[in-house]
Design a protein that fits this description.
alpha/beta; Arc Repressor Mutant, subunit A; 10 helices; Rossmann fold; single chain
Length: 214
């Protein structure tokens, strides 16, 4: 589902996506309020959500959608510096960020990644999240009870996730098979009640499990 107040942007995205096998645009919304109303009807797997829109911005719309729909994944779209939006958007349930001027092939790849249940947490976005957390008071582990349930190996994995590493990179670092890492990631998400690895990383930083610069 495409959510953007500019018709030309929506049209451009639709043309790119409908040329791809296996991708279907199920709806278009002109602002966040329209998106919240449309989700129940359109039942999208992935929502491309502009950050800045009239009536209701993308971050508020993302929060409302994620609160009532555990299925849809939200990817935030922006032409602006991410710093002002990253932490707020990830905190309310966004599964990733993408610049509007990204190449078509990157847009398609990002959609497929998020539709598969993974998250688009690039190192640059991770660094912005770290910088934001570094300016906040030390986290409280009690705010995320699932942290205490993580095994030693799961703690190793989530710390590397918090560095922006992919499953393949974590497997190399810990001398594990990638399938084993994927199993650990799944268990981490389950214990933390996280939608995806982005939410797990946010929990890791906000609980104080991972500290900037460590």
């Amino acid at each position: 589902m495409l959510v953007d107040d500019q018709a030309m942007v929506r049209t451009g995205f639709r043309m790119i996506l409908e040329a791809e096998t296996g991708l279907t645009v199920v709806g278009e919304a002109v602002d966040g309020r329209d998106a919240v109303d449309m989700v129940a009807r359109a039942r999208p797997d992935v929502i491309l959500m502009d950050v800045r829109m009239p009536n209701m911005d993308g971050i508020e719309a993302c929060e409302k959608i994620c609160a009532v729909d555990g299925h849809a994944r939200v990817m935030m779209l922006t032409t602006f510096d991410l710093e002002d939006h990253v932490h707020a958007a990830l905190r309310v349930g966004a599964s990733g960020f993408l610049l509007k001027d990204a190449p078509p092939e990157q847009l398609v790849e990002a959609i497929r990644i998020i539709a598969a249940g993974d998250a688009l947490l690039a190192p640059s976005v991770t660094q912005i999240l770290i910088d934001e957390v570094a300016r906040r008071p030390v986290g409280q582990p009690d705010a995320f009870p699932g942290i205490a349930q993580l095994t030693a190996r799961e703690l190793d994995v989530i710390r590397l996730m918090a560095c922006g590493m992919s499953n393949g990179e974590i497997a190399t670092e810990l001398y594990l098979g990638e399938a084993t890492v994927k199993t650990h990631v799944g268990r981490i998400l389950s214990k933390l009640g996280a939608r995806d690895r982005v939410q797990a990383v946010v929990a890791a930083y906000e609980s104080g499990l991972v500290t900037p610069g460590a």
